[in-house]
Fold this sequence. Notes:
The complex is a heterotetramer, with two copies of chain A and two copies of chain C.
Chain A: E1 2-15, E2 18-24, E3 35-39, E4 50-53, E5 56-58, E6 61-67, H1 71-77, E7 84-91, E8 103-109, H2 113-123, E9 126-132, H3 141-145, E10 150-156, E11 163-164, H4 167-177, E12 182-187, H5 190-203, E13 206-210, E14 226-229, E15 232-235, E16 242-244
Helix pairs in contact in A: 4-5
Chain C: E1 5-8, E2 11-13, E3 17-19, H1 28-31, E4 41-43, E5 60-63, E6 66-69, H2 78-89, E7 95-100, H3 105-114, E8 122-126, H4 143-154, E9 161-164, H5 172-182, E10 186-189, E11 193-196, E12 198-199, E13 204-205, E14 211-215, H6 220-233, E15 238-241, H7 247-256, E16 258-263, H8 265-269, H9 273-287
Parallel strand pairs in C: 3-16, 4-7, 7-8, 8-9, 9-10, 10-15, 15-16
Antiparallel strand pairs in C: 1-2, 5-6, 6-14, 11-14, 12-13
Helix pairs in contact in C: 3-4, 4-5, 5-6, 6-7, 7-9
One flavin-adenine dinucleotide (FAD) is lined by residues 35, 48, 50-53, 65-67, 69-73, 111, 114, 212-215, 241 of chain B.
Amino acid sequence: xxxxxxxxxxxxxxxxxxxxxxxxxxxxxxxxxxxxxxxxxxxxxxxxxxxxxxxxxxxxxxxxxxxxxxxxxxxxxxxxxxxxxxxxxxxxxxxxxxxxxxxxxxxxxxxxxxxxxxxxxxxxxxxxxxxxxxxxxxxxxxxxxxxxxxxxxxxxxxxxxxxxxxxxxxxxxxxxxxxxxxxxxxxxxxxxxxxxxxxxxxxxxxxxxxxxxxxxxxxxxxxxxxxxxxxxxxxxxxxxxxxxxxxxxxxx
Amino acid sequence: xxxxxxxxxxxxxxxxxxxxxxxxxxxxxxxxxxxxxxxxxxxxxxxxxxxxxxxxxxxxxxxxxxxxxxxxxxxxxxxxxxxxxxxxxxxxxxxxxxxxxxxxxxxxxxxxxxxxxxxxxxxxxxxxxxxxxxxxxxxxxxxxxxxxxxxxxxxxxxxxxxxxxxxxxxxxxxxxxxxxxxxxxxxxxxxxxxxxxxxxxxxxxxxxxxxxxxxxxxxxxxxxxxxxxxxxxxxxxxxxxxxxxxxxxxxx
Amino acid sequence: xxxxxxxxxxxxxxxxxxxxxxxxxxxxxxxxxxxxxxxxxxxxxxxxxxxxxxxxxxxxxxxxxxxxxxxxxxxxxxxxxxxxxxxxxxxxxxxxxxxxxxxxxxxxxxxxxxxxxxxxxxxxxxxxxxxxxxxxxxxxxxxxxxxxxxxxxxxxxxxxxxxxxxxxxxxxxxxxxxxxxxxxxxxxxxxxxxxxxxxxxxxxxxxxxxxxxxxxxxxxxxxxxxxxxxxxxxxxxxxxxxxxxxxxxxxxxxxxxxxxxxxxxxxxxxxxxxxxxxxxxxxxxxxxxxxxxxxxxxxxxxx
Amino acid sequence: xxxxxxxxxxxxxxxxxxxxxxxxxxxxxxxxxxxxxxxxxxxxxxxxxxxxxxxxxxxxxxxxxxxxxxxxxxxxxxxxxxxxxxxxxxxxxxxxxxxxxxxxxxxxxxxxxxxxxxxxxxxxxxxxxxxxxxxxxxxxxxxxxxxxxxxxxxxxxxxxxxxxxxxxxxxxxxxxxxxxxxxxxxxxxxxxxxxxxxxxxxxxxxxxxxxxxxxxxxxxxxxxxxxxxxxxxxxxxxxxxxxxxxxxxxxxxxxxxxxxxxxxxxxxxxxxxxxxxxxxxxxxxxxxxxxxxxxxxxxxxxx
Lengths: 252, 252, 303, 303
Ligand SMILES: Cc1cc2nc3c(=O)[nH]c(=O)nc-3n(C[C@H](O)[C@H](O)[C@H](O)COP(=O)(O)OP(=O)(O)OC[C@H]3O[C@@H](n4cnc5c(N)ncnc54)[C@H](O)[C@@H]3O)c2cc1C
Ligand SMILES: Cc1cc2nc3c(=O)[nH]c(=O)nc-3n(C[C@H](O)[C@H](O)[C@H](O)COP(=O)(O)OP(=O)(O)OC[C@H]3O[C@@H](n4cnc5c(N)ncnc54)[C@H](O)[C@@H]3O)c2cc1C
Ligand SMILES: Cc1cc2nc3c(=O)[nH]c(=O)nc-3n(C[C@H](O)[C@H](O)[C@H](O)COP(=O)(O)O)c2cc1C
Ligand SMILES: Cc1cc2nc3c(=O)[nH]c(=O)nc-3n(C[C@H](O)[C@H](O)[C@H](O)COP(=O)(O)O)c2cc1C
Ligand code: FES
Ligand code: FES
């Protein structure tokens, strides 16, 4: 982990309200699932950094993919080539590699795509399910289809791309067809993660989920990002964001 | 007075820590001595607008000349062509014209140049004295010398340009040579204004000074910018910034 | 859609947006920028029995997302106000709330009497001033002193009486109840926070008065908590004040329990914000199919 | 140049920069980023007798130039701290200040006893917690309750005792004197300001706990005023806390009367700020030919 200045190389809209930014900065090697804390301005307003997953990092160039939600991501979307950002990371614990005997299934929904895509690209095997409301919400569709060794399925609620329905339905269908040990990697809305976790139990699969929680520091000192686990409260930013799904106490 | 968006056309260093900015925005006609309140960012930090005199305004293009002092002026100096600012103005009461029979003497020191230069350029007659610590502190020296009809004298404390000494000394010397009714227009450090005011009294000249005071609104509603006058407290932003020097209670 | 809001018997604003005291002078400057009739009400600069000169300059100073002021309550005095400013305000279709203060109970009462005239819709007492008779303790810092003061003013006026609380107290709810029991019709929560700024180069305070009052977005989260706390304890309407800059802020303060809001510092930075905020509120209500702002007031959903 | 500062008999920091409680955990994470020995001292997360789970999430929220937190004092408990964290902190050349709290006087005293061990340089009492035996009123809100509490803790420890005051009180000077007379060696001014945030879309509070504490640059002007007020009334050293982000802020707080400062929220945003601030302070003193920070402390030039 380092605090470094990053230079915006490119920043463009790649789907409805979703931007892909490339930044030049020297990071240590990352594990998919790890994230950065981005500081957006020189002034103290906005005050807190924003957590965003690393999509890729190679030779001093990092990619992030983000949805414009509120003030911070709007400011980010306004950054132009040549502007500077401060970047802290890579932070947290990423996904574990699938074991050699395991079939890997990647499931992403909403803003959960970046860490999942990073993992699928790194592993180059298995199946990826991307779920969205509609076609326009799916970024990097071409790029996903070209990950060598990874089979990609999209689900959309309105049927505008791929299968009509939910990602978890497609996951269920897929798991039925897999006849070897399986590991599910999921990132997305809590409802999706919960369902993925129970499907994993039903099918006897291993399941890792990447959790989102509001953060202040991102490196483990403020206790903002608590998540209830079977081992008590854990910090999403250092113990996670990736957790073994069976350890999470999902609550109501 | 209007609140309008202004587009930065140009912004460049023209002397030590001093920038000239041109902005495109539609203002109503201005009187030299009037000022603008500039808002620097979209966020609330910095919170207050900054008062800056109008140097010139013609056909939708306004010029301001400012010294980089603190946070606000630094942010201003960082603005690039194409960026936007919000501009409130023109505000306040400017200088009165010299009467036909009056000889006009303009005296500027420190950040006091812009309103004085604006007036000299508008009037096209009289004498201008610009005082500074050193040559490098004097912006727009060429431009000043080319104001048709206005004789320009520089004074520097280190003698690096013009006469070695203070602007008020040069004013004193000049007044000795003028043998008709005279009006002095001054803007600069309080010490300078005070001396100009007493010289005016000694020589029986009329004297108008432009006063600086911390402002919050700039349009007369907050009472931040009080100045003691013979008529009680007055607001620099609406009753001034230009006052008849004989009305100011200079204090200690 | 009904965005009117009731603050007291006989005091109903057509919308919940008021100017704040001390950032609107007596309305003349803003009237040159927009029609004051668009406001729910205007609150005047705080008036005293005699004209007041105020503090030495500098009187304001910028802080992170906020500002300090130590104007020192400079004002033209109540008589000059009534003679020179009130008639002008009367030409607009808006409620005129007159903010005032005194140096002792009798002066407050005297002021209230003087302001019990046509053209004044309500009076707002600023109690963040020292009681010079009681050794300089602020009226707004002791519930007993506040209660007595309010009761005395109550007897001196037939106008709706608004008490503007000081925020920097241990038990704001106690102060609210003290004012309510004294006969206040509504409460403004709240005034500025005592604060200061220092210049590390000169080693001097930046303000001529050493300390001043903090306002602006910086204090909004505290003001919101105070409104929420007071509105659950007091039975009378609450007017919010502190850091409001947008219709979003207005909705948040309404949810916390405010019946109206005052916009102060932000209108110094953006004098045209009032219209923008009112339009934003109307649009928000329209988009959410809300018929009346009473559907928002105090409707915060807590677990 | 001497930038050391004395906070109590036997407690002298090599420089006036401390971490703040709750934004530094127990030091391990920061130790991976820089050598903790550069700090004047570290202040640990607030500890309780038993481990504490804290509040439901969301626990933090951004505000204008600041943040709210409602962590709910989650901590590993004093025993785990002593066994697992204290030895690590002991490996650095810095003072270890242990922040703690209790639910009643006996628990505070018991905690103080437990912490009266080697490796602990001083203890800092957080009194912004409700006294569950006294109907939930905060210890830090009543001078009598505070005085008794401090006196009892005083008798239970030989360590320098720092009391961290709650800022949201009517008379902060009274609270300071109550702590001083109870036997405090130093005062930290101050903790966060009770505040809240509301989501106008969901109509819900943003924090799981509804309210939280405001910190960051937004509150700095108030914290500065509190330090100035307290340091002129109390005879014991004051440690400043609230919105510090730069060496300029540090100089301002020293001028106002602080003997040291704690840096909290800003270090969440900029974890490397400590070194930058210490270097800036040294440079400032050098540029101004200052030999010792005692030449700055309390030297505000007032008219
Ligand atoms: C470990 C981690 C990795 C993430 N990776 C990505 C990613 O790769 N791409 C992406 O689009 N989004 C990602 N998110 C979500 C992203 O952090 C938020 O969408 C973003 O912070 C919103 O900021 P804002 O200022 O636009 O929204 P605002 O609502 O204005 O933010 C206000 C505050 O809430 C916090 N916040 C708001 N939404 C979230 C959220 N969903 N999770 C955590 N904090 C939130 C912000 O950080 C900020 O402190 C990630 C979140 C976490 C915790
Ligand atoms: C009517 C008027 C006209 C002016 N015209 C010019 C001009 O044409 N060119 C120019 O270079 N300067 C001018 N000034 C001074 C200019 O406003 C300040 O230098 C500028 O506001 C400094 O802002 P800052 O953020 O860089 O400094 P900071 O010190 O960071 O500012 C902090 C606060 O102090 C105020 N402040 C600081 N210095 C002054 C000052 N001298 N006068 C008033 N407020 C101040 C700022 O407005 C701000 O609110 C004028 C001032 C006034 C009152
Ligand atoms: C320059 C200035 C002058 C003020 N004068 C008064 C006053 O005379 N009487 C009063 O009750 N409040 C006064 N206030 C307080 C405001 O009315 C308001 O309550 C406070 O600033 C918080 O709101 P804001 O954050 O919207 O400014 C003043 C505030 C400012 C900034
Ligand atoms: C996330 C967080 C947790 C905190 N936890 C504690 C705590 O456990 N005990 C305590 O006394 N203060 C706690 N504080 C208050 C800080 O120590 C500090 O006094 C306050 O935040 C003001 O300083 P700042 O503006 O530099 O953050 C906490 C503050 C934050 C932001
Ligand atoms: S965000 Fe601070 S501990 Fe996780
Ligand atoms: S700056 Fe507000 S009255 Fe002059």
